[in-house]
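To: structure subgroup
Subject: Chain for Friday's discussion

All,

I'm putting the inputs and outputs inline so they're searchable in the archive.
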Amino acid sequence: MTETVIDAVDVVKVLGRGPGQVQALRGVSLALGGGELTLLIGPSGSGKTTLLSILGCILSPTSGTVRVCGQSTAQMQPEDMARLRRDHVGFIFQSYHLFPTLTAADNVRLALDVRGEPSGSAIAKARKALAVVGLSHKMKSFPRQLSGGEQQRVAIARAIVGNPSAILADEPTSALDSENGQAIMKVLAQIAKDQARGVLVVTHDPRILPFANRIIRIEDGRIVGEEKGRAGRD
């Protein structure tokens, strides 16, 4: 049995106030286990990104409980949420979020600098993370010198360099062509084989369904279905 990395129970999230108030999540329960790649699929406005933000300790739920590596986020102060996020969660975004004036290695190392990692070990860990995503030969390249797929690989390296328990990816293939999207998912699927790490990918992209161990469907702020993915049946 795999270890539960993130556990959400009956999560409700209300956004806005007054006439513009929206109930983005309506009692969502979801467990992300180590050693699996889970896809979260749903139409625009279904609550996918809001749920990802709550699971990643960026937003607090209006009600319900969230535990990250056994630690409840209930009553946590913002600085405690930031610490939990920094220690246990790695984010991958659709638009890469790389600093254009930094090399690939320095973009990755930045995630360790904010943790106070000594320079020497930070450099070594950044090189190792880039090797994991197949970019050992691009360490000194700037983002403008990299393709979209390579930039996304740098973003993945940055997400994993701190050895987080959970990797949360928001539409990581949507800006890429089919070949690069498949390559990115192969990297994420390999990362998800670590029994101590879970990977959750929010997506609209049907091309990446074969990489999933689990597929969770969300509509109108509710989980409406869950099934084993092809990778989970192998």
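Points worth raising on Friday:
The mean pLDDT is 91.
Strands lie at 4-15, 22-33, 36-41, 63-68, 71-72, 89-92, 166-170, 198-203, 214-219, 222-228.

D.
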